[in-house]
Amino acid sequence: MTIRLRMTGVHKTYGQTPALRGVDLELRVGEVHALVGENGAGKSTLMKILSGAEQPDAGSMLLDGGAYRPKGPQVARQHGVVMVYQELAVCPELSVEANVLLGQESIRGGFLQKSTDRERVRAAFHELGHPEIDPRAPVARLNPASRQVVEIARALLTDVKLLVLDEPTSALSQEDASRLFDLVRRLKARGVTVVYISHFLEEIEAVANRFTVLRDGQQAGCGKVGEVSRDRIIEMMVGRTVAEQYPHTPHTMGEAVLEITDLCGDPLPAGVSFALRRGEILGIAGIVGSGRTELLRAIYGLDPVRSGTVKVGTGVNSLATPANRIAQGIGMLSEDRKSEGLALEMSIADNVTLSRLGRGFLSRSRLTTSVSKVLAQFEVKYHDQSQSVGELSGGNQQKVALGRLFHQQADILFLDEPTKGVDVGSKAEIYRQIETAAAAGKAVIVVSSYLPELFGVCDTLSVMCRGKLTAPRSVREWTPESIIAAATGG
What we know:
Helices cover 34% and strands 26% of the residues. With 490 residues, the chain is of the alpha/beta class.
């Protein structure tokens, strides 16, 4: 196949920290090429260099056989190279049309050609298989999947040759992810080269032709998808054999520590009852919008409750607040770590200790020691405890957010999408900590959209549908098909 892009010996250093160390990458015309690796492996840095957002310290690039070194994203776009970031770069207050056309408006005789541009936008959405998106609608009204299509439509107007999608399904439902895969296949069919960055190996197997693995800023392997086993790819990513993706620590279930009776929120949940036992890992499945997150937030005191009771231990607390729940030994990990799970501008140490500072005078040395233990327990990669947590990779941020609950010494853990946006190696470590917590007698609720995670980690499983929760059953009594049926009201 014809080579679209060849990167050779690319180096990039930030201060004293090498991000890329002589990386080679070859992309072909009309292929979907998966770029995989743990958080901090260098994937984003390499793609920022490709898209002109960063400049390499050394190395060369050839695009369609010619020398290529863009001085900025706009120059890269002029060459047909576009990157769609995980954090979408759209202007919510502007219309869909304005977002797609930004910097690409048609001008004739000094006047904007609005009718011509609107037809260009409609044609782009029609080609992408989304004619239902109204160019005049504000982007703020669109769901995450449609906002992503807006970014890709913008790329189509530049006559895109090479499109980079960075974790494109991180905020999408399964149905929207499936539609995205169809869109990627259509782009491939028209000769567009797509670089697909994802932590989900099953997605890569579904959509990609070839893959390249980065580890510690270097290429750790490459090959054709389907010819290399998933275990081998994981081994390339983490640098060691992952014999078991879901490590198990023996644990037994005891008495009930949390009892929910007819809990109704505003508007969700809708009459939920269940009991959580000591040493139990209870998984909650369901489609986006089913009320899983709302259930945890209502119990924790973040969302209003219209009726029902929450019994923690031996007492019933009708006036629930997060402070009361923390005092009762409940810790909660939000699914949105950037907005709710972490204070990104604060230090790593401050984030770990936010839920439990202790009383009286603070001993800085004791605080430093306790934080060090938590960070070592979760194998967090960091330079200094005073470092801003926002400077860490996504996986290490998630570990810090989880570490806060362990420093809090919570006995009941609410974990909402605990491995969202986390690489394979970090996932295995998080699963190990969940198992260890259960073995220590803690009770855990895991809300997840990733069925293999629920089957691999949980003892019992419930399914949420339209605000109602099925009775918990042993995870062995469920199948993926029965979960989907229950989640969709079947």
